[in-house]
Amino acid sequence: MTSPSQTAVSTSETPGRASKGLKKEKKGPGGELVGRSPGQLMWTRFKRDRTGVICGIVVLAFFVVSALAPVIASLYGKNPYTLYGSEDPTLLDEFSYPAAPNGGISGDFWFGIEPGLGRDLFTNLLYGMRTSLGISVAVTILVVITGTILGVTAGYLGGKTDYWLGRVIDFLLAFPSQLTFVAFMPVVVALFVAPGDETPTYIRVIALIIVQWALGWMGLARLLRGQVMSLRERDFVEAARITGASPWRIITKELLPNVVTPILVQSTYMLPLFVTAEAGLSYLGVGIMEPTPDWGRLFHTAGQVYENDPTFLLFPGGAMVIFVLCFNLLGDSVRDAFDPKSGR
User: Fold this and answer.
1) In this structure, are residues 91 and 118 in contact, taking their beta carbons and an 8 Å threshold?
2) CA distance 8 to 250
3) Count of other CB atoms within 10 angstroms of residue 334
4) Labelling 272: which of 142, 287, 307, 321 has CA 20 to 30 A away?
């Protein structure tokens, strides 16, 4: 007996019972009907969702642009560290604000310049997105791995293992996440750097990853625990036990393929949350510090100059809204594509 995730769906169903999008039967070279795997069905349903496809392209574009930030900056001819306002005093007025209108937007500075220091906003945004997305992707990967391992283990083994892992999850969930992030960041940094020494950027990156990972895996683990507890009583798992399959084989071959859907869906929801959390920590001054570009640092600067230079907030804020919105809509589309009862 095979598990539900290993059963190919045949397209030879009667027309009245065929689901939407499967009415056109797929035939092999010899004219025989060919079944489709759950992954192929998911991809077919996802491609029909125009909103999901567009959001996926936008999200992919953010990651590509962030990864190619040094290349784009080289072609653009500027970098995020040079103080262009000091090199050319005409760029800033007597109050150290951009002398040109709209934040100094021009053919030389596409998004304008930063008040006070006169740095280029376009390259700062590119490198800032690269920093924030890199940290958030690392946190998401660690959270998914930890949540999957502990959640599946607790759900399958049950007993004392489930009890003690459940108590650990309950304990960690009692911490208010944002306040705990702010409080724990200096503590984690102090573990790597002696008092009075300057903190390297890579230490702050490691601290951000550790803090968000330590307090971010519990929701996924609890979700997968419930899923596995319902799956372990199914016939295909009992059949695997009867045939003498080891717990490791049952977990990897029978249970994990059936929890891929919640893992993927939750991942698409978690990553934008970690992006905003990382930006929030940098905005509050406990994350990435100057002069390293960061999305949150741009918001921090914009909060100080918005009364006299509201344009400075336009591009970092707009980019953040577009990214988070598209990623959330992408998560909805992925969920609907995996849902066999969905009409989309």
Assistant:
1) yes
2) 20
3) 23
4) 307
Question: Are 328 and 272 a contacting pair, CB within 8 Å?
Answer: yes
CA angle 217, 215, 158 (to 5 degrees): 45
Whether residue 156 contacts residue 148, with contact meaning beta carbons closer than 8 Å, is answered with no
Q: Are 98 and 119 in contact (CB under 8 A)?
A: no
Which H/E stretch holds residue 73? Answer: helix 69-76
**Strand-pair partners of 98:** 92
Who's near 78: CB < 8 A, 6+ residues apart? 84, 109, 120, 122, 123
One digit per residue, pLDDT tens: the chain, 344 residues? Answer: 444 444 443 333 444 444 444 444 455 454 454 556 666 777 777 788 788 889 989 999 999 999 999 999 999 888 888 888 887 788 877 777 887 877 788 888 888 888 888 888 899 999 999 999 999 999 999 999 999 999 988 888 888 888 898 888 888 888 777 777 778 777 777 777 777 667 788 888 888 898 889 888 888 998 998 888 888 878 888 888 888 878 788 888 888 888 888 888 888 888 888 998 888 888 887 888 888 888 888 888 888 887 888 888 888 889 999 999 998 888 888 887 776 565 54
* E strand or H helix at 302: helix 295-305
Q: What is the pTM of this model?
A: 0.81
Backbone angles phi, psi at 33, to 5 degrees: -75, 140
Q: Which string of DSSP letters, residue by residue, matches 174-226?
A: TS-HHHHHHHHHHHHHHHHS-TTSPPPHHHHHHHHHHHHHHTTSHHHHHHHHH
Q: Are 100 and 92 in contact (CB under 8 A)?
A: no
